[in-house]
Structures are given as structure tokens and as C-alpha cells.
Amino acid sequence: MKAYLQTFTRYRHLLMDLVARDLKVKYRRSALGFLWSILNPILMALVISVVFSQMFRFKQEYFASYYLTGALIFNFMSEATSNSLTSVISGASLIKKVYLPKYIFPLQKTVFAFVNMLFSLVAVLVMMLIDGVPFHWTILLFPIPMIYVFVFTVGLSLLLATLNVFFRDVGHLYSVFITAWMYLTPLIYPESLLTDTKLGSLTLMSIVQFNPMYYYVTYFRRVVMDGVIPGLEVNLICAACSLFFLVLGVWAFKRKQDKFILYV
Q: Coil, strand or helix: which one is 198?
């Protein structure tokens, strides 16, 4: 672990430079620049709100804010993992020329998505003001679920980046998987729908409880919108899922990284 920390410290400036480059490329030649990180989520939340709360009649108070708080967390994970899939392959030219820790590439994509999420957090606050959502002191606890989902996403990104080097079909399958994952997470529909919908003898909630993103999204909503502090059980579940995927991702990446050069 000490060796890893020393290596990370040595290359931290490279990581920051790569993240800064991605930010500049994303908003290059855009008149509004970084403001799109705020405007885009707000506009998307308004569209979703009109479609689902009016046309489909979902009975959810403060629907636009409800959607946006969930989408903020899920979209971070989705963006980070989707971009991390091909990060090692895309960095092949650097890997073949100079030595640098290969985990820099998926970590760069995850940090970049995390920075975008921080910008979009402003959109959540603006939408809550528009919706008239009451503010509670628990909103100050918003970094906790963000840290949980960041650790989880780093581990998953390392795992997916490793798999995609050897099995390129993973990239195609993951786009389908992430769509199904989104619908299994209560982003658009109210949580009450999970207990009301049955699949045979099981409720949908009994299946969704195996979805880590359900806990991260719910945790964020509880502290930001509801003024509720999740209990010890929820914190243990979130921490356990995050650490499990981080250890799994680091183990898989470390075990296979020396063979990357043969496949990229």
C-alpha cells in the first residue's frame, strides 16, 4: 500500500493535467462553457418532469428535484464507468512509449466525472429553489453519499477497464446493462412503486435491494431533500458495497495490468 501511495503521489500532477484536459475539450468552443454543467441537468429535469409527472401521472412531490437528485448520483457512475471501459485501450500510445501507472487512465475518467457531478450539484440546489423544496441542515451531509459512490465507481471502473482489454464485447454489453440498471434504480418512478409491483411471489423492492445504486441514490435524497440521516445499517451497506468493489477492482487490475501491453 505504501508503494502505491508513493506512486500515486509521484503521478498526481499527470492525473490533474489529464482531468483538466478533458474539461477543456468538453467545453471548448462553447459560448456558455461550464454553465452547461448546470443548465443541462436543469433542462433535462424539467423535460422529464413534464413527461412523467404530467403525462404518466406519477404521484411524487417535488418531482423535478426528486429526479435530479437521483440522476446526479447515477449519471456520475454511468459516465465514469462507461468512459473507463475504453480508457486503457485509448491510452495505448502512452502505455507503449513511456512507463506510467496504468490505473491513471480509469481513475482519470472517474475523477473527471466526479468534477462534473460537483458542477451539476449547483443545478440540484437551483431546482430545489424552483420547486420550493424546504432546506434542512442535513443537506450539509451530501459529501457522504458522494464519497460512497465515488469509491464504488473507482473499483467498478478498474474492473471494467481490465475486462474490456481482454474481452472487447464487454463494451457493447455494458451499454445494454447500464440501461437496465438505470430502470432498476428509482430515478424516475417513486420508491413506493417498488413495494406495490410484484414479480410472481416477490416484490420489485426485494430485487432492487441487491442494487448498490439504490442505496447511494436513496442516501443522497434523504439528506438533501428529506432532512433525514440514514441509520447505521444503510451506512454499513453503502460502505461494504464500496469497499468490496474497490478491493475487487484493484485486485483484478493489479493481477492483469502487466499483460495489457499484449492486447492494446
A: strand
pLDDT tens, residue by residue, 2-20:
666 666 677 778 788 888 8
Q: Which backbone phi and psi does 199 adopt, to 5 degrees? A: -120, 95
Q: In 3-state terms, what secondary structure has residue 202?
A: strand
d(CA 186, CA 69): 11
Enumerate the domain spans of the chain: 35-262
Residues 59, 39: Cα–Cα separation, whole Å: 25
CA atoms within 13 A on the CB side of 33: 3
Give me the pLDDT at residue 248, please. 96
Measured distance CA(193)–CA(185) in Å, rounded:
11
One-letter amino acid at 259 equals K
At 70-92, the pLDDT tens digits run: 999 999 999 999 999 999 998 88
The answer, yes or no, to whether residue 55 has pLDDT greater than 70, is no
Asked whether the beta carbons of 125 and 63 are under 8 A apart, the reply is no
pTM of the model: 0.90
Distance CA 157, CA 180 (A): 18
Retrieve residue 187's grid coordinates: 430515478
Q: SS3 of 199, please?
A: strand
Residue in the block written with cell 406495490: 196
